[in-house]
């Protein structure tokens, strides 16, 4: 497709304070990248890009439709996997066990809280997109959720930036930056145009989602959190267009597996190579959807495996916990008591037996607020990431 490249403009650099090296302090101008207006542009896919796009749509549709009774727990599983991988791209990685503690309301590290906030932001964006158009309020609300764990970033959350930002280079100025987004006075207009594009219904779905993401990252409308909100926008558009209804395609795991390739494609998009970015996202959707289908099959087999190793009595507290594990793989004692409908002591005995059998593992060290997790589900989260990483290196 023919796609306009970003134009470069030289702007005066007038900071409030002169800091940093001598080069920082004497900087007078900066070259900023101005994205084109895309609201009314078409996406005419041809050749290999069109074929990859069609394959990707089929792969996502197959993932969405193929797993019946296991779709509800699979939905939560994939959503958490996508959010955690998206955070890892930003070098925020608490580990699955620390994240599980945060998920169950236990004492958590700052990184785990940040990853949980990314889950909440993704849920908010996808749910809103399922109910109607993606709006500026959708993005701002999700950004508030994402930034909430940190007092300092939370103060500036939920609003588009009013300062110049940049990627790479100096901490004080855009000197030697890898990319300098448009100046703040252009952000509102560019975002309004992007939302027009994101809400259209006459475009190839994955192409629309891919380009919207690349455009969002090029505008870089927030002072922080642009990567995670921008990647959530892909999932929101897939939900808005009806390609997904419950699952979240774990695209961020593909990006995480080879971040250099991901960032290189974003850079080429700014030179007018929209086709390249669309094909990259399409192939990422194929790889991640097929890997997610493997995880779905593995998850479906877990309850039978748990029964084999724990041998619970019929209608016992142990069996009730096993039956609930796919939908609630991480939980505290209160949840266990609610699931089993038994006394505190009876629930603890069941948890002890299932832990001894290897069905559960204890995530928290505190005896007062213990948190348990289904060992097999945590293992499958790791397996999904590993599988996507291997397939990314083989097929992308």
From TrEMBL:
Active site: 220
GO molecular function: ATP binding
Keywords: ATP-binding, Nucleotide-binding
Phosphoprotein keyword on record: no
Pfam families: Fic
Domain Fido: 134-283
InterPro entries noted in UniProt: Fido (IPR003812), Fido-like_dom_sf (IPR036597), Fido_containing (IPR040198)
Keyword DNA damage recorded: no
UniProt binding sites for ATP: 224-231
Protein name, UniProt field: Fido domain-containing protein
Organism: Rhodococcus wratislaviensis NBRC 100605
